[in-house]
Design goal:
alpha/beta, VC0802-like, 15 strands, eight-stranded mixed beta sheet, seven-stranded mixed beta sheet, about 30% helix, 10 helices, elongated, 2 domains, binds S-adenosylmethionine
């Protein structure tokens, strides 16, 4: 049975691991790079369609030591790459190199590309795929650490994070897989209300609503890389998509609320939710955090918030006031609620003057953040 590797951001491996298992796929291992699972290609299709916290699904094909360029070239020949695409389709090789004898990543990428292209030339009397670094049919991911080379095929294409519903965003939107990861890490029970008091383009709530409605995160995408591979099983894919649509829930019995000080952001969030088909599940309104109150009649639930934290938005001193305002409203109006805050700035979370009951490290792109849980007792 082939193995696949579901990749995600640092800090989300455990929730991704749970998701892969929940799909009924056999987890083999989890590590810094992601979660390895054993499955036929149908499982790979489902993973691409349904995983909320993965950024891509790779198929590892080679893993070998190489000290010399010729060894690299010869080992690449041990896998038949001509079975994935035709010479009329296109190819790209992405390489990363760490502590290696090889000159640099460009050299490694070129050597691997030459080896793959030569396989095609030999099989197809000189015909070979062109290189297209932007939008290739087949993208190989090559990772060299010291003398160990691993080669994977990207089955996803564009990052799975790019669902397709968010065509409008503010200055610092959360990537969709990360927003889904926050919802999962919070331990959200699906009948519990979530409020995002600084919702920006609405990503956290839209991801929660998609989950509540069992809408597959990949259902907005036009294309996955595997659909263009030779041997793509379109019948199986159609069945998987039909099953996913059949599992959608019309009325999940839970509602979400998003607020933002900017009416422009609120408008964008509404439009994004509409494109995602979850606008009935979310109420968005303009409100500053210092006057934040729970909508009337609600039982205490969850707040999940990604306030500005200065790396990309605003200035730390000015932002401290925003965090103080948030803490003020929480203590005053949200007794019994649990609030999760994603922040990349300890000075700002310090300004909350609240004691976190849990702190989880998480990377938002290159920014090391903490996802902090506060139980609001009053
Ligand atoms: C980092 S962004 C949130 C991004 C969002 N998670 C997304 O995916 O688009 C922070 C948001 O906080 C909002 N904001 C800043 N100060 C605020 C305040 N005092 N009250 C309410 N919202 C505020 C900003 O308008 C911005 O949209």
């Amino acid at each position: 049975m082939p193995e696949f590797l579901a990749v995600t951001s640092r800090g989300l491996i455990d929730v991704l691991n749970d998701e892969v298992s929940a799909l009924g796929l056999q987890v083999v291992s989890k590590g810094a790079a992601g979660v390895v699972f054993e499955s036929n290609w149908e499982g790979c299709y489902r993973a691409n369609l349904e995983l909320r916290t993965a950024t891509r699904v790779l198929k590892p094909v080679l893993d070998f030591p190489a000290y010399e360029p010729d060894e690299l070239y010869n080992n690449i020949q041990k896998h038949d790459f001509t079975k994935y695409i035709t010479p009329q389709q296109t190819l790209a090789v992405d390489a990363s190199v760490r502590e290696s004898a090889f000159r640099d990543q460009r050299f490694v990428a070129m050597k691997v590309k030459d080896a793959v292209v030569d396989q095609f030339r030999e099989k197809y009397s000189g015909e070979r795929p062109d290189v297209d670094t932007e939008n290739p049919t087949l993208r190989l991911m090559v990772r060299v650490v010291k003398s160990q080379v691993s080669v994977s095929i990207d089955t996803s294409g564009d990052s799975l994070s790019q669902r397709g519903y968010r065509t409008e965003a503010g200055e610092a939107p959360l990537r969709e897989h990360l927003a889904a990861g926050l919802v999962a890490m919070s331990g959200w029970q699906e009948n519990v209300t979530i409020i995002d008091p600084m919702c920006g383009s609405g990503t956290i709530l839209i991801e929660a609503a998609l989950r509540a409605r069992r809408i597959a995160p990949g259902s907005f995408r036009k294309k996955f890389a595997f659909q263009n591979f030779t041997g793509f099983q379109s019948d199986a894919w159609d069945r998987i998509v039909t099953q996913a649509i059949g599992s959608e829930v019309e009325s999940p019995g839970v509602h979400f609320y998003g607020f933002d000080v900017s009416s422009r952001m609120v408008r964008m969030a509404k439009n994004n939710a509409e494109r995602a088909g979850v606008d009935s599940e979310i109420t968005f309104a303009t409100s500053a955090v210092d006057v934040l109150t729970p909508p009337e009649g609600l039982k205490p639930g969850l707040l999940i918030v990604n306030p500005p934290y200065g790396e990309r938005l605003g200035i730390t001193e000015e932002l401290k006031d925003v965090y103080r305002d948030l803490a003020f409203s929480l203590k005053r109006n949200f007794k019994g609620w649990t609030c999760w805050i994603l922040s990349g700035n300890e000075q700002l979370t310090g300004a909350l003057k609240l004691k976190a009951s849990r702190r989880m490290p998480l990377f938002n792109g290159p920014i090391e953040c903490r996802f902090l849980e506060y139980k609001i007792n009053g």
